[in-house]
Amino acid sequence: MEAEQVEFGDIDQLESMQAEAANDEQASNADNGPPPSEWPYDPVIAENAAMITAIGFNMASKKFGDHWNLRRDDRERLGVALAQCADHYIKWFERLGPAGNLALVTAMMVGPRMIKTGMMNASNKAKEKNSVVATKAANDE
C-alpha cells in the first residue's frame, strides 16, 4: 500500500485509516492466534514481574532521569506481558520443585541488591576521582 499525504484534521481520511488498521489487526490475529488480552497468565507472576521491573526502572530513573520511571499502567502491562511469556514459554518452572523455587526467589531478592551495590560503588569511585582531580587542581593553583 502506498502512503498518501494527509492533511491534519481530515476526519474521513482518519476514519478510513482506523478502519484499515482494524482490518489489518483482525487479519493478523487470525494468522497469529488470539489477541494479547486473551493469552493466559498467572496474575501473581504478573504482579511480581511488575514489581521487579519497577525496581529496575526506578534505579535507572535515579541515574538517567525521571522519564525512566514507569507509570502504574505501564508497569501493569509489562508485568502481564512477562507473565504471559512465562506461561507460554516456561512451562518447566512447575517442575523446578522447592529447591528451584528457593533459587528463583533468592535470585529475585539478591539480584536487584547486587545491581544497586554495583551502581553505588561506581558512583562512589566517580566521586572519589572527581575529588582527587579537584584537589589536585586546587593544589596546582
Tell me what you see in this structure.
By secondary structure, the chain is mostly helical. The chain folds into two domains: 38-95, no CATH class; 97-141. Helix content is 75%, strand content 0%. It has four helices and no strands. It has helices at 11-32, 43-64, 72-89, 97-140. Helix 2 crosses helix 3. It is flat.
Fold blueprint:
Elements lengths: L10 H22 L10 H22 L7 H18 L7 H44 L1
Helix pairs in contact: 2-3
Task: Please tag this protein with its features.
141 residues, mainly alpha, 2 domains, 4 helices
Cα shape: flat
Number of domains: 2
In terms of DSSP E residues, the strand content is: under 5%
Average of pLDDT: 79
Residue share in helices? over 70%
| First-last Cα distance | 68 Å
- Class inferred from helices and paired strands: mainly alpha
Q: Strand-and-helix sequence, N→C?
A: HHHH
